[in-house]
Automatic annotation (TrEMBL):
Source taxonomy: Bacteria, Bacillati, Actinomycetota, Actinomycetes, Micromonosporales
GO BP, sorted A to Z: Mo-molybdopterin cofactor biosynthetic process
Reaction(s) the record says it catalyses: adenylyl-molybdopterin + molybdate = Mo-molybdopterin + AMP + H(+)
Stored Pfam families: MoCF_biosynth, MoeA_C, MoeA_N
Protein name, per record: Molybdopterin molybdenumtransferase
Length: 408
């Protein structure tokens, strides 16, 4: 493998890493519904029965046969199996969600009915039937959701409605983080030539939001600036994770040991440098894990914003592929002000969205070593190579990974 490479187009890089992840997605496993939230369907969700499975009342009232008045002959509640209505002029009291008895011709709402002194029921059924018919929502064997659908609470409810106790899902990718750099402090304020490690708290949190698990023991650093220490740390990461993220060392300086370490471990580059600013010296390499299955190492630049750009450009699409999901399409937003281009490179400009999520404004303090702008941004405006974007233009927007309930 070569440590030198011409930067690859940003869009192509996203596609390459996504396809690498999709090819390495783990086998399906069946898990209880209680453990499936956040996973991905490995097989289509198919209706196990008609939905609803039986005619179901939509109201509280009376199931009637023949003409009014009707003589009550019983009651049916949700969960019960009623006897047929066999005679004209009879009815049963019925609850919402209860099975409509065979022989019933209409339903009358309780609030639109009356009872006389003898207990006979009168009322006028509405023109439209007020029960759900079997198969109204789905027919047995019908595909409800395709493989690759992210499992959320609505999907869990749908699966339970169909009668599933377990669902087939893809494994959740495991991630690890190795922080390189002897100059890093792990506590206290920076000073005297040393800077605070901001990536150990930042990267794992976004990895989790992007769909990976990150155990506390899978975070190491600062790793000593020696080749042997890098090789040892990467080997450990590969033993506990499917994706190992490293920070720093992606160039070829006197203490940049990542490329030699990858060569020593027999890695194969999927992407080696990307034509994007900030963050171009990012990389993704494929290695073989202890179990013989593919593992990945994502080399994130050491500057914090550049590291985040590498994470959303390479790692997030990789994780989507490992989950067996589709690569998310980028939404388009309207710019409120001009955003310059970066020549032959794609420019990812930090931006904040308005309350509707439709208009984007670039934020300040957006240098590659800065986090102030990132802390208030929702993602990045994408300006293609050899282009500039003007106020009012519709441009792609690359969102930061979000947890449920977070805006936008």
């Amino acid at each position: 493998m070569s440590a030198q490479s011409m930067p690859i187009d940003w869009d192509k890089a996203r596609t390459l890493v996504y396809e690498a992840g999709r090819a390495a997605a783990g086998p399906a496993e069946s898990v209880p519904l209680s453990a499936a939230d956040g996973r991905t369907l490995a097989e289509p969700l198919v209706a196990l029965t008609d939905l609803p499975a039986f005619p179901t009342s939509s109201i509280d009232g009376w199931a009637v046969r023949g003409s009014a008045p009707w003589r009550p002959v019983g009651r049916v509640l949700a969960g019960g199996t009623p006897r047929p209505l066999a005679e004209d002029g009879t009815c049963v009291e019925i609850a919402t969600g209860a099975m409509v008895p065979q022989g019933a011709e209409a339903l009358v709402r309780v609030e639109e009915s009356t009872r006389d002194a003898e207990g006979l029921v009168a009322g006028t059924p509405r023109p439209q039937p007020e029960w759900r018919l079997p198969g109204e929502e789905a027919r047995r064997g019908e595909e409800l959701l395709p493989a690759g659908t992210p499992v959320d609470p609505a999907v869990l409810g749908m699966a339970a409605t169909c009668g599933y106790d377990t669902v087939p899902v893809r494994p959740t990718p495991r991630a690890a983080l190795l922080v390189f750099g002897d100059e890093l402090l792990t506590s206290g304020p920076p000073g005297e030539g040393r800077v605070r490690d901001s990536l150990s708290p930042l990267v794992p949190a976004w990895l989790r939001r992007a769909g990976a698990t990150v155990d506390p023991g899978a975070i190491q650093g600062p790793v000593r600036d020696t080749l042997d220490a890098h090789v040892e740390a990467i080997r450990h990461g590969l033993s506990v994770a499917d994706v190992v993220c490293t920070t720093g060392g992606t160039m070829h300086g006197p203490v940049d040991h990542l490329h030699p370490a990858l060569a020593a471990l027999g890695a194969e580059y999927v992407v080696n440098t990307v034509a994007v600013r900030p963050g171009f010296p990012m990389l993704l390499a494929r290695l073989t894990g202890p179990d013989g299955r593919p593992r990945f190492l994502a080399g994130l630049p050491g500057n914090p914003q550049s590291a985040v750009i590498a994470l959303v450009s390479l790692v997030a699409p990789l994780l989507a592929g490992l989950h067996g999901r589709e690569l998310p399409a980028l939404p388009r937003v309207e710019l409120t002000a001009d955003v310059p281009g970066r020549g032959g490179f794609t420019h990812l400009a930090l931006a904040v969205l308005d309350a509707d999520g439709r208009r984007a404004t670039a934020v300040g303090h957006a240098g590659s070593a800065m986090l102030r702008g990132l802390a208030r941004a929702h993602g990045f405006v994408v300006v293609r190579p050899e282009q500039r974007a003007a106020a009012g233009d519709l441009v792609p927007f690359l969102p930061l990974p979000l947890s449920p309930g977070e805006r936008p």
